[in-house]
User: Fold this.
Amino acid sequence: MGERLMDELFVGKSFARMDKDKVIGRANFINDITLPRMLHAKILYSARPHARIKSIDTSKAEKLMGVRAVLTGFNVPEVKVGFLGDQTPLKKDKVRQFRDEVAAVAAIDEDTAEEALDLIKVEYEDLPAVYDPIEAMKPDAPLVHEFDARGKPRRNNLLPLPWKLEAGDVRKARESSKYVVKDRFSTQWVHQTCMGTSGGIAEFDVNGNLIFRSVTNVPFGGKDRLDMFLKNLGLKGRSRVLTPYVGGSFGSKLDTDIYEFILVLLAWKTGCPVKIVFSRKEEFLASPPRQPVIATVEQGCDSNGRLTFRNIDMILDNGAYTSWGATTPSVMMIPVSSLYRVPNVKFQATCVYTNNIYAQAMRGYGNPQATFVIEQSMDQLAEASGIDAIEFRKINANVPYEKTPMDLKITTCPMSECLEIVEKRLNWSEKRNQKTSRGVGVASFLHVGGGARVYLSDAQGIIMKVDDEGKVTVITGGTDQGQGSETIIKQMVAEATGFRPEDVSIFQGDTEVCPWDVGTHASRHAFITGHAVLLAGADVKRKVLDLAARWMPEMIRFDLSKRARKDPNFQVPLLDFSPLMDTNNLELRNAEVFLKDDPENKHFRLPVAKILRRAHLVGTGKGEMVVAEAFYDPPNEMLNREGKGNLSCCYTFGAHGVEVEVDEETGLVTILNYVAAHDVGRAINPMLVKGQIYGATVMGCGYALTEEIQTNHGRVMNPNLLDYKILTAKDKIPIDPVIVEPIEPSGPFGAKGIGEPACVPSAPAIVNAIYDAVGVRIKDLPVTPEKLLKAIKEKKAKEQ
Amino acid sequence: MGERLMDELFVGKSFARMDKDKVIGRANFINDITLPRMLHAKILYSARPHARIKSIDTSKAEKLMGVRAVLTGFNVPEVKVGFLGDQTPLKKDKVRQFRDEVAAVAAIDEDTAEEALDLIKVEYEDLPAVYDPIEAMKPDAPLVHEFDARGKPRRNNLLPLPWKLEAGDVRKARESSKYVVKDRFSTQWVHQTCMGTSGGIAEFDVNGNLIFRSVTNVPFGGKDRLDMFLKNLGLKGRSRVLTPYVGGSFGSKLDTDIYEFILVLLAWKTGCPVKIVFSRKEEFLASPPRQPVIATVEQGCDSNGRLTFRNIDMILDNGAYTSWGATTPSVMMIPVSSLYRVPNVKFQATCVYTNNIYAQAMRGYGNPQATFVIEQSMDQLAEASGIDAIEFRKINANVPYEKTPMDLKITTCPMSECLEIVEKRLNWSEKRNQKTSRGVGVASFLHVGGGARVYLSDAQGIIMKVDDEGKVTVITGGTDQGQGSETIIKQMVAEATGFRPEDVSIFQGDTEVCPWDVGTHASRHAFITGHAVLLAGADVKRKVLDLAARWMPEMIRFDLSKRARKDPNFQVPLLDFSPLMDTNNLELRNAEVFLKDDPENKHFRLPVAKILRRAHLVGTGKGEMVVAEAFYDPPNEMLNREGKGNLSCCYTFGAHGVEVEVDEETGLVTILNYVAAHDVGRAINPMLVKGQIYGATVMGCGYALTEEIQTNHGRVMNPNLLDYKILTAKDKIPIDPVIVEPIEPSGPFGAKGIGEPACVPSAPAIVNAIYDAVGVRIKDLPVTPEKLLKAIKEKKAKEQ
Assistant:
């Protein structure tokens, strides 16, 4: 499958995105959906970071005209939810963070629901709180949770998630190293900041089944969690998840969020569909961001600059509860163990409860934090060993078909090529080490590119229905959060089946109808869907050609004799129809069937729609239409107990190089040049791949320079887009995306996944460039002008 | 397939209807659906029965706040629509009936649209009109259409639809007959009077594709017509038809109605979704009813009472335009040629344009009119030959496995059995011929029961998706108008697959996702769907059992060893797993897999969901899930040019017997007893079959006694449920439905279709009973008290 087809018609072409309705405001997002009898929900959040709830008085809210339900932990069953089952949808005993859901209202409109919230009175009794994960690890720290999910008393704030990986002998390697560097780095909370905020609509049908319109990027995972919730509520129904257009996820919609369980409770209590859509403020306050880490990294190399060992210890601020953020160390292990060839590796990550907001997945799933740490340490070690930073990376670069200490089996790997592209395009040798307030920096990455078996199944099912007008409907378990999958799926389906992209329509986002898929995460969607498309598409093609072999001779004969009847001068050609009768001789391309070995033969070429119609409308008894299906489960592995295993079918590599200018008077960093070289296996749609690279790189630059959820004693201080600064089009980062296509044998049409990785190396590349420009290394993200100016001043003070 | 399975678990059982949400008002019909940016449409109908349109002034309407579009024939392309292409959605040159659509408005709400209609001024110039089909056939009658669809001048009001059937030699047979009767009968306009009125929502997506939410019972046929309309408008898009819950069709939703084309025009002009839902008044005025017929029938028999010939001539009032009503003679041919054994048959039907409302299909599709005529003539001929009416029918009854003059191939046929049931349950011999104001009457019927190939394909496609929780989603091209198909499909799927009805969910009503189906008409849905279910279900079962054979031994071993680990005293039994490894040894029933030959073996019995989950969650590379599909095209035939052919795989028979009491002072008819004996092949769900019999019989009684669209010079005078009298629950007709189950070999589980026929024989049975009671035969439906009283008085006057 990985072989490059020499004559592809649609794959590899930059088709414009086909979901154009988004551009003109005619796409229907969750915001736009209205159901009969629908109510609107609002949630009351905690006013304290850590407190006992003494009482909740909802009596006034209940009496407000238009209010249909007021729920608190006291009038709904106590059902644990979340990755570790460490919370309930509505909090009863105590609140542990400012985003704790204390009460919820369903009313006839949003304003009424909002007004009802104001009428709810909560009495709190404050408890001592802890906001610093290192403080929280101390024996006398206040306990965020007195009991674990099973009711056993807890003695500390550590999560029962022992993330460890060890390969080789780090201690021995350290002893034999020529150069060793050690440092400590930290990152901030950043928010996914999707254009589409969180929201959903829950309703129960008359049989007690839940229909949940969700913005999730894992519809079947969401369904499982909702099913479990129903079961734990003592309800018999099962759930069906429908996903409308979604305005971005970037991981924020990976877990079933608390508001979703609350919607279920409200729908159950009221018997009506209940909707919520977060305001931007609610989105910042009550949807879980990327977690901050504090990392200690130690690396060594020999006299030739070859890495000898890497030892990384991380502390993750888990916040008050646990979502997927706590599992990101499983992905951090990938760069820790396998970014560059390093024989001896040790990694440990500790997740700690605090009274802060809690964290979730975000694009790259831990890789941005880990790569931030590793790639600065790489620069430090290069400097220590006197080797140029790019040269040092090339010495240690990953190579094709190696097996890493984590047992990742690397296939194609153009890492050195990517580094060379950066070197060349940045004019590295001239720009490096100039110390003129301008500098260049580099960072590489590797990421899963061929799925990621984080669940027992990494599969996707697909059904293709072909109608007698030659239209192909693809029913797939996947979902789209805005990444443009519709376009590339249509390209791949057209290529695989022989139809055209405009003949294809996609149906997804309904767990009842669509076959199973593990979800659109881990940059897996195009890769896994592509394989499913190839399997089902081959079946479609075979079935269509079978019909062609059966009907074409008759159809052609009929057309010729009709023409002869109409035109007495028409000479009916003598044709040998026998080659047509064998499926193997036929080819279907661009919605036409013709002889494989004689494509120029116009007599033997028919539009596929005509053949399908003929096969359908036989007249009696034996009409046929074409449906095909496939279930593709990739040959990747789950991590074993040691944290090892070949998680993905392939890995994607790349290097970002950046040239910055630092204004030493203001601390402001300007990006002058940005080269993003990416191994994508094969670009199904180069324009869309570049779109992913642009978008993720801008996100990575925001991570480096501007984005930060600021908290004060657990309270988010900047829940709006004025104070939380994402980079936008007007920041004009001059990104030069370079696509490297080694044609991945394990990939569909040679492709690897590319959704996440471009946001991974930006921060270290920028920080490395700043260091090159002004000799100052900022070890704590983001690199704000304030921090940088202070560091520059300190450096200058020292130098004087 | 027709063989009766001796141990069926679900088929043949009276499961309660599963679409319970309708009962408590939580089902969403077209009325309930709201889309973002949706506008509301209203249509202005003609104020004249026949007139030239001199001008339409929409200027004031256009200026009304909230109006988004005002369309007339003058500002939209002139595109012909309808079965014969004899009209345009909005009329420009002239109006030909009071329901002619003259203008349409889309506005922000219904009230605004309604107000805008009042502001439209139309100037008419009256033309002479014709309301009687016999008048309309005269050479000097005003022409309803001056030109045909191709623009050729027309010379008369006859439709170019020559409905003729001839078999044997009627003239010769007449000469040799012992008894001959001849009479003339007529029927009225009746309305389908669905609980759910007509309505729809049209919208265009950004690519110019039409999404049409429709109440149609032929989604794919509707799609074809909409596609053609788009094409004729010069638009490139294609259409997708979605059907929500529908509140009945009875044929009224068979054709794409004019308001639907108007919705498309409004959606196209405004760029917004546009909705219309008819009021009850609009439904009566602007949705096409069952057409009236004037029939001359002549029949003869020999001295033994054996039918010698039948000659029927019909005139159908087509109204001003042509819909499917004009094609009902194709179905009239069935009873005309084949109800009872009659060797010589002649049939001719003439459809005539008038300035009346035009007609559409209705339950039975011409059969009620034809049977009304035939079954009165049968009584007249029985009387003429001095043979009891039931005896006469038994002499001539259809018999199994005969071929009729129309080339229908009858299979199972319990017609005599049905007549005997009526005879016995009505206590016929005692009640007949008493002339005490009470009387009994009988009528039989035959109808298609195994599909009806009215289109080149009579097929249905189906897809079954099984998930790892053991749930089966059935994606079918069929649709439900309220007949309860959800319930029986679930029963049949459970039976065919081995799962349970509660494991099954149905997805239908989306032409994009569902595989093709010709539509839910001609009593074909259960029959054709059942076959598709059997085909796909067998494939599902085989695939599931393949997985079971692969995984069960390992699963059972694992469970046993786990138990042994937990309980040291547990003795692991010595089991021979080899029988489990062969799919052929396994059986799946009631969602459990077990050994076919050893069903009591508890070790070798597992819930199917557990096996499916195991097969899905293999861990790496080879997870599997089950999808199966089928496309069932029955072996029935289209009618040939002579109107002959085996239209259906089988035919359903029955007899209705009724005892009436006539109040000779008031003319009021009371039904004292009503026996409805029906050959259903096999009842998939006896309760639902009885529901169909109840409902259709009540409809038939209304046809006989109360229902009539009254017109005055082409204007409908009773467009409301106060003046148009349907029978309701409070009329308490004491129906005794009797199900006869010959187990049809061509039917799925032995079933025949049963949606329509119970409304067929009611009217003649009642009229025959009235004749038996008071010696008066009413030849024109309905038998109103006025008509009956008048006839009784006339009879008495004659007798005196």
Remarks:
- Residues 681 and 742 of chain A are 5 Å apart (CA to CA).
- Chain A has 18 helices and 28 strands.
